[in-house]
Amino acid sequence: MSRAWWDKQIAKGFIDADFVMQYKQLWRYAVEIKQRNPANTCVINIQRPSLEILPTFRSFYMCLEGCKLTFKKACQPLISVDGCHLKTQYGSQLLITVGRDPNNQYLPLAFVVVETKMKVMEMVSEFAFRGYW
Questions:
Q1: What angle do CA 14, 15, 18 make, to 5 degrees?
Q2: What is the DSSP secondary-structure string of 26-54?
Q3: Fewer C-beta neighbours within 10 Å, C or N terminus of the chain?
Q4: What domain of life is recorded for the organism (predicted)?
């Protein structure tokens, strides 16, 4: 029984290390999105109360210019928001705003990853206020 517990702890360590590595690569991903098309929007919010404390992830927002232009030119003026919980050690939520194209198919407009449900409307209103949508 103790051997199984240790094996489980080792497996969790690999998974947790993978999450940390993925969060570190998030900045490179944002830069790559902006390099491919400067009109793309990619915003990463972090919280860092002081210089002695490491920054913590708050939210990630991404909107591709091609999807935005397609929505403005051809889609019905209706936006829906769908979301799911990310079952990780960080407990975030993934929100996707979608529109309907002329073929009645879904067109993704923006992707947002936020910490908790309480902050979802706060983040959506902040991004809408800044003109990202």
A1: 90
A2: HHHHHHHHHHH-TT-EEEEEEE-SSTTSP
A3: N
A4: Eukaryota
Give the separation between CA 67 and CA 90, rounded to whole angstroms. Answer: 29
pTM comes to 0.70
Per-residue pLDDT tens over the stretch 9-25: 777 776 666 666 777 78
Q: How far apart are CA 40 and CA 48, in angstroms?
A: 26
Reported as a pLDDT band with limits 50, 70 and 90, residue 35 is very high
**pLDDT of 120 strictly over 60:** no
CA dihedral 77, 112, 63, 96 (to 10 degrees): -40
Task: Find out whether 61 and 110 touch, Cβ atoms under 8 Å.
Answer: yes
99: which strand partners? 79, 107
Segment 83-90 mean pLDDT: 76
**Token pair in block for residue 111:** 């992707």
Residue of 126, 54, 73, 56 whose CA lies nearest to 95: 126
- For 90, residues 6+ apart whose C-beta sits below 8 A from its C-beta are 19, 57, 115
- What pLDDT, on the 0 to 100 scale, is given for residue 118? 47
